[in-house]
Amino acid sequence: MVEPSGCYELGSETRQPECGPGKRLRAAALKVRVEESVFLVDRALLLQHCEYFRALFRSGMRECGQEEIHLKGLSARGFLVMLSVLRGERPMLDADEIIDAAECAGFLQAEFLSRHLVNIINSDNCLLICQVGANYGIADLLHSGALFLRDSCRDLEGAASCLPKELLEYVESLTPSSYVTVGAHSPSVELLQDFVRTVCYLDEDEKDWKVLTDLPNEASTTMAGLTVLDNRLYIVGGVRDITNQVVDSCFCYDASADTWSTFACPHQPRYNLTLVGHDGYLYAIGGEYNRTVMSSVEMYDVSTSTWSQASPFPHPVSSAPSAKAMSRIFICSWKPMGATDIHEYLPGEDRWTLLTTLVRHQSYGHCMVAHRDNLYVMRNGPSDDFLRCVIDRFNLTTGQWTAMPGHYSNSKGSLFTAVVKGDSVFTFNRKMTLEYAIEDDAWKPRRQMRGFPRIGSFWTFSLRLPKPGNQPVRKNNNYQRFKNQSHAHPSSSLHCTL
After folding, report:
1. What is the CB neighbour count within 10 angstroms for residue 380?
2. Rounded to whole angstroms, what are the CA distances from 365 to 104, 392, 436, 462?
3. Which residues are 443's β-sheet partners?
4. What SS3 state is found at 131?
5. 486: enclosing H helix or E strand
6. 50, 85 in Cβ contact below 8 A?
7. 0.70 exceeded by the pTM?
8. Taking residues 447-473, what's their average pLDDT?
9. Which residues lie below 8 Å from residue 172, measured CB to CB, with a gap of 6+?
10. Helix (H, G, I), strand (E, B), or coil: what is residue 151?
11. Could you tell me if 476 and 195 are in contact, meaning their C-beta atoms sit under 8 angstroms apart?
12. pLDDT tens-digit profile of 182-207?
């Protein structure tokens, strides 16, 4: 909380930004008065992150050369939250702080602060986020809050009715995300079409899995990297057969248009890679080639359709779990003697940093998902007990690990693949699909639906499919026959011991 008449300092002197054509500021430091508080702020920081100050400093107006600027109509608390976010902090905010921060983000056009508000959306504040996004004209904030609310409509249907009519209509016009999966498949011959080479989605109303689309004949998901970026599924680096020959095309599925396309492959052929989509880029991390594990990283600029080199991972790595949290990229890798490292990639600086290490004897992280400022690492149980899944939570704000209570059955692949949707986690095995509610230090089973009737390795993710009436999902005549055959196989149940 900001005290009246306080003076707060942020940053130190840096380069002097421009102030009008051909002019320079006298000093890097600037005093900003908000209500009764005065903040000592780095001008360059404001220039970089706030459109309001960019326009002010370059306008040639009288205020451009002043050592102190008075901002009226804003709260000191909201300005203080903005400064903390600009210096790299990721604070969790209560309702009053969200309102003040949104007002500040809207008035100062501080996109970095708006993004932080998007990152902390949950069931408790998504209604408020919608309203403040609309009130202060922050389109991304309004849209993100509405999407979260749409995804959580089953839990928040009654609460959503308190929204103004136009906001409620906007929320209802959006499409909720769907839980989607695809198995490991090698390229097929058209005359011998494999009817299980499909991408499937979970129909939560009917509590069953349905076919979304076929994989292209030449596409391979065996030892490939898969990720979703901007509602498109990308496939990079699959192999053709046991020779590990890498396919020579990469594939993209646009869920909104129900269309497949190809794009250029990385310069270095690779399989068993980690593929991450973030802020308009794909990152192909590590992997193998000619049975050699690599540390190299390439990045694909979707806007220009070009690959370029990025800073290599700290050591050779393959099939490493990944997650994105608070607009940050995290990779989970193994070390000898039961150590699981989590590295963070900093795109703006193109460098890797070791975030934390989890040491558990003969136990390694196999999957990682994120929710707000928490990373959840799913690992095998003690010693060689791979039929138990133990979950540890790492909080990015406190830097502390927490062992979640209970253990979870991992038989037949359950829980080592998972997707977060709203405040829920979805995972499956052949017998059932489970939705867990994220509640502080535990996952609580919420709903049970039909399992995914296949065997093998799977990738899971979320996609937003067109609304009914424009639904690209097509019927597959073989799918029901395949489901009936699959259910003849022995299945194991997924359970949670708490």
Report:
1. 20
2. 40, 9, 20, 22
3. 438
4. helix
5. helix 479-486
6. no
7. yes
8. 81
9. 150
10. helix
11. yes
12. 999 988 765 445 678 999 999 999 99
